[in-house]
Each structure stands twice: as C-alpha cells, then as structure tokens.
Amino acid sequence: MEIKITRASTLKEKPDSSTLVFGKAMTDHMFIVDYDAGQGWHDPRIIPYGPLQIDPAAKVLHYGEEIFEGLKAYRTADGSIQLFRPRDNIARMNHSAQRLCLPQIPEDLALAGITKLVEVEQDWVPHEKDTSLYIRPFMIGLDAALGVHSSKHVQYIVVVCPVGAYYPEGLNPVKIYVEEQDVRAVKGGMGMAKTGGNYAASLRAGDLAEKAGYSQVLWLDGVHRKYIEEVGSMNVMFKVAGKILTPDLNGSVLDGITRRSCIQLLKDWGYEVEERRISAEELFAAAEAGTLEEAWGTGTAAVVSPIGELAMGDKKVTVSHNQIGEITQKLYDELTGIQWGRTADPHGWIMKL
Ligand SMILES: *Cc1c(COP(=O)(O)O)cnc(C)c1O
C-alpha cells in the first residue's frame, strides 16, 4: 500500500533539546490509516499534525476502546537513525488488539507507518546525548453510536515527539510505595494489554503517591493483594542474594520489551533470573535480612530506573544504600549503548532506518 504524503505548509520551530518536557513537543506530521470492517485497512497517509475530528459519540471517548505503543528512534554517532525492536512493539499491539476486539494490523503496514513518519520527520530526531524521538502508535475505535459494541471503523495513528533524558539530573534512585488500596489490573482484565484504561485506573494512586513524596507506586496483584506486579508504568526487577527476581507474566503484568531485553542480557552475563510470584512480604523480609541488593524498574521511557527506597504502611526500607546498584547501572549502560549504536548488537535488536 502506498503512503500518500501531504506536507505541512509551515514547519514548527524545533525546541531546544536541553529543555524538552516528555511528550509535549509534537512534530509537524502524523501518520493515519483507516480500517473498516469488510474493507480492511485503507488510505495510509502522512498529513500535517493537528486535531482529529471525532464524532462525540465515538466509542473511544465513552468506552475506552484504545490501545497504544511506545518506542524510540535513536540518532547514532554517524548521524544515522535506528529503532530498537520495533517488530516487538507491533506484535504486542496486535496482542492488545485481540483483548479489546480491535482489528489486527499487518506488521508491514504498522511498521511502514512508523518508519515513513520518522523519515519525514528526520530533522526532529535530536543529536544531543540521551535524547531521542519518542514514537507513539495508537489504535482507536471510532463507531459513532453509544451502544456497547466493538467498532467497525478504526484508525491506527502514529505521532512522534523529541524527548530528552527521562531523568535530566541523571540516574538517581526513586522512592516507591506499595499501593494497598487501588489495583491497576486483575487476571482476566486488561493488564497484559497496553491500553489507556489501565492508565486511567492508575491515576489516583499516582496522585496520592506524589502528594506523599513518592515518585511511583508498586502495584500488588488484584486478587490476593500480596504479590508484586509492576512499578508505576514499568516492569520491576530485584536482585536478592545474587539472583534476579521479576514477577512472571501472569496475565495482569505487561510484557515489557525492556523487561525482555534485560532478562536476555542478565542471562548472557550468567545471572540466574527467576520469573515468578514475589510477595511484598518476601521483599521486605529480604530487605530486613540484608539480601535485597538492588531494585529497579524497566521501560522504554526511562530504560532502567533505580529504586532507592521502598515503603509499605509504616515500614520503610532503603535499597542499595539509596545508590544506583551495579547491575542496574550495567543494564542501563548496555541497553543505552545498543540503542544509540555505541555497543555491538549481538541479538539483532536494532533496525536501521
Ligand atoms: C509500556 C509499559 C511497560 C514497559 O514496556 P516497554 O516495552 O519496556 O516499554 C510496563 N508496564 C506497563 C503498564 C506499560 O504500559
């Protein structure tokens, strides 16, 4: 399918790369392709960035019929542009689509939407250290009727924006508390899907955490309210007595691509990685016994995010003396090295534009 390109008549001024706020500086163009039941995907196009015209009765506005992805385009030292495991993002989007009764999108079409848009916006891929172009593909159900059904008219859209380092002050450990009231997802729900609804469910706890001086919450499972699932909107890993522990993909945990990549690297380095149920109790007991050596979150936006303090109720423990741990740092260095093309890519994770 040929992608029709309509260029913007005036281009925006590019923001200063040193003051980028995550997700705010949208570029000049966006990619859209329509889907209609019976017809399939049609009319892929790149058009000037701007508001969408949506019927006020559209399902996405009332029933949260939406899924999304997040990945980045990286500028290498020789000036070229590359993506990190983009096919994994598309496979996951199709997995999310199944859960929400949205249509499957052919991998080549979804990928072409991303690569063509990045090509059109190549001058927006920043050059400064730790900066990148964040890519946000999403799919929305647009049938204009208030009945609760899956949509027959759907759009897949891609927007992009330059982003700076997630933590401009550098990789500092964050304070986390264990959320005991709200849950993000339950087994049988949508936890394994990357969908806006899960984020809506997480907002209240996030707000309360922030007011209490914490940067994120550690989510517990929705059934037993005992087992650790994720941290904020990242997957989570712990180093306990030399071994790496991470919650298994039990249906309510998102299958993170950074998580997957970390597990591979850790195994390459000879670490034992256990994917299993981990109770908050087990974690705090390890901390008190002095065997909780490191804790970190993993996700595309921050790559890895060290955890320096954990709180649950009136219990509080410090992890790794509130310093970034050795493995956390090594994972960060190795992954960012591969992503920006400074390090060899033995697993074929990089796709050059
Ligand atoms: C996107 C996301 C992650 C991280 O996934 P990556 O593919 O590593 O970016 C983790 N948890 C949730 C809830 C997410 O939405």
Q: Helicity level, as a percent range?
A: 10-25%
Q: List segments where confidence is low: pLDDT < 50 over at least 5 consecutive residues.
A: none
Can you count the helices? 7
**Tell me, what's the shape?**
globular
Bound molecules: pyridoxal-5'-phosphate
Based on CA atoms alone, the radius of gyration comes out at 21 Å
What distance separates the N and C termini?
A: 19 Å
Summed over residues and divided by their number, the pLDDT gives a mean of: 96
Tell me the fraction of residues in β-strands, as a range: 25-35%
Main sheet makeup:
9 strands, mixed
Number of strands: 18
Q: Could you give the order of the helices and strands? A: EEEHEEEHHEEEHEEEEHEHEEEHE
Q: Helix- and strand-based class? A: alpha+beta
